[in-house]
User: What shape does this take?
Amino acid sequence: MLNSHLIRTVVGCALFVALSFVPVRALAAVTIVVNGATVSFDQPPIERGGRVFVPLRGVFERLGATVVYDNGVINATGNGRNVQLKIGSTMATVNGETFTSDVAPFLVGARTLVPLRFISEALGATVNYDGNSQTVSISTGSASSGSTPPPAVALTNLNPQDGGVVQSSKPAVSASFSQAVDPNSVKVTLDDRDVTSATAISPTDLLFTPPYALPATSHTVRVVGASKAGVSFDKSWSFTSGTSTANNYLHNILPTDGSNVGGTFTVSGTALPNSHIHIDAASVAVYGGGVFRMPAGSYNADLTADAYGQFSQVVTITVAGGGDVTVRITASKSASNSATVTLHLKS
Assistant: This one.
């Protein structure tokens, strides 16, 4: 639980950071480290009124939080906590409790800058400053303070399965990450061909369908990137396309492709009886007429179709008004190839 007294103290003290000795200017000389990994900013940290401000995404996502930015309101959820700030406002909400400070987030061009210490501690992190090296070190509760490194990222819920066989020449490919990753760091290749631009990537999942037909042979998917804790990973798996012993299917899928949905909706349909059903969903907030896209939420579930092949699952996901929601449904069963349907929905 967030220490309310700590937050009141931080806010009441005007979110003082020991960096206040730095002149009022961009703090290019200051190094900011999150869980042992140095954070690089295209917009350098800025000091205003004795407080240090840093770009929004650079802090929230490194602290393992999901960020939704809408019409000047910043909502971040992570580590069991919710933080809300508003551009130009000194009011902040942490886990539903309102606080007042003498500083407020502001814009520099198209970039949103937020107070470093307040954001970090509101999300449960510890902030320390080394004046000799001009380094701000931020550690989350999930990071180790000893010599044990942060956990490595693994790929789960592989589709097609590692070593599996599919009939389609354009099979749906997806995987889940064992821990939150930085979506902007992830690169996906298929047989050494970069398919990142055709891939929907969230902090928890990736989804893509090859934009070209694959030959009937073995194929390798490679995924490289970094976790939100700054740990690099390089994972791959292989499958064969073009042959199969039986065909699974997905019929009568709801909601229909292109539908409008809210934060809670039901996915249902029919597959081969007793099939394993895996559902991945990822939502994206869209700004600037589609120019800027930011992950808003993600969801995944596993269930089993009944003896008639019918299945139904309630999906609950954070969405942003006017954004996109991608839902991928995969049906698999022993001695048959998998079937996949991808829905492109609106929120």
